[in-house]
Write a structure and sequence with these properties.
Strand 2 and strand 3 form a beta hairpin. The chain starts with 65 loop residues before the first helix and ends with a helix. It is 26% helix and 11% strand. The relative contact order is 0.25. The chain has 254 residues and is of the alpha+beta class.
């Protein structure tokens, strides 16, 4: 088997494999997962979302400094609010076939590797590829930003790590994406800024919830999660609900 170990530095050409876009309702919570010693994956190489506007940095570092939390609140304050529209007509295929490498206009597109594998490669450490491939990830250690746990992942149990759409596609549909053209929806679905590999159970618990209904189980990363959610909404000129905006501000001390 060909082996490749990534560093925690800059990776600008990486992706994901067969993620999960689960829809429905959810509530704050979720825990558990297969753990490995923190030194193997760890959060020390994670990048703050405030320093990662393209989503091509690894992980999701906590936002804790007073000045950074002030910046985070200012970012969230820029969001416009509206109510969720109907989910009528939503289907995953409206955002393109899962994990396209051809969603032009986003980082990592057209690099010969599908989006899921790109993201596993970007966020994982101790990455191993399928024999003869520099794309298909078969094992890695992931520091899950949502639970704070390290997960020793193997492709044989693929669902233990899923790719979360930070702003869920169904949520986006109800907040305006139903009126977007196909190209914009494909960008949202494959934009590294809107994607994080996370513990499968945490992703399943989230479903298509906004921040008012679901937040990462690890309280320390909730402000960072709010920032990432806001960055995606602002980039795609999408509103959020009033309860979601209030919840996001509260995570950063607002």
């Amino acid at each position: 088997m060909k082996r490749h170990v990534t560093s925690g530095a800059v990776l600008t050409a990486v992706a994901l494999l067969a993620g999960c876009d689960v829809t429905g309702a959810g509530a704050p919570g979720g825990a558990g997962g297969e753990s490995a010693p923190p030194a193997r994956g760890g959060s020390s190489s994670a990048v703050s979302p405030l320093a990662n506007p393209e989503g091509t940095g690894r992980g999701l570092a906590a936002v804790t400094a007073g000045a950074d939390r002030e910046k985070a609140r200012a970012l969230v304050e820029r969001l416009t609010v509206k109510g969720r529209g109907p989910r009528t007509g939503y289907e995953r295929d409206a955002f393109g076939h899962a994990w396209l490498d051809t969603a032009d206009g986003v980082a990592l597109a057209r690099n010969g590797c599908d989006t899921r594998n790109d993201l596993l490669k970007l966020h994982g450490s101790e990455v191993e590829f399928r024999s003869g491939s520099d794309c298909v990830v078969v094992s890695m250690v992931l520091h899950d930003p949502y639970t704070g746990k390290d997960i020793a992942w193997k492709k044989a149990k693929a669902a233990e790590v899923q790719i979360d759409h930070v702003v869920p596609l169904s949520y986006a549909w109800q907040l305006g994406a139903a009126r977007w053209d196909d190209a914009k929806r494909r960008r949202l679905a494959n934009d590294p800024l809107n994607l994080l590999p996370v513990q499968g159970r945490a992703n399943s618990a989230k479903r298509d919830s906004g921040p008012a209904s679901w937040l990462p189980p690890d309280k320390g990363v909730r402000c960072a999660y709010a920032v990432r959610f806001a960055q995606v909404a602002l980039k795609y000129e999408m509103a959020v609900t009033a309860p979601d905006k209030r919840t996001m501000l509260a995570q950063c001390g607002g």
